[in-house]
Automatic annotation (TrEMBL):
Protein name: DUF559 domain-containing protein
Domain DUF559 stretches: 10-72
Domain of life the protein comes from: Bacteria
A Pfam family it matches: DUF559
Listed Gene3D superfamilies: VSR Endonuclease
């Protein structure tokens, strides 16, 4: 729970303060959803989480880049 909000991110790494979100097109097209996503991202950031965000198309078209990004973030967090 962060700032009184219970969030269920797409991927949460318990051992590291890292979150991954995958957004469908409705996240960009709906102003309320977009605002809520920004608030959610800021809430995680204020608690020290690093967040990576992707579109569904990113995962479909560039899965290797997605995996490289996630591994890079986790390597960085482990080195702290």
């Amino acid at each position: 729970m962060i700032r009184g909000n219970l969030y269920h991110p797409d991927i949460l790494f318990d051992e590291h303060p890292a979150v991954i979100e995958v957004d469908g097109l409705h996240h960009a097209l709906n102003p309320t959803t977009y605002r809520n996503d920004l608030r959610r991202q800021n809430d995680f950031a204020t608690e020290g989480y690093r967040m990576l965000r992707y579109t569904v198309a990113d995962l479909e078209q560039r899965p290797d880049q997605f995996l490289e990004d996630v591994h890079g973030l986790l390597r960085h967090l482990r080195s702290r």
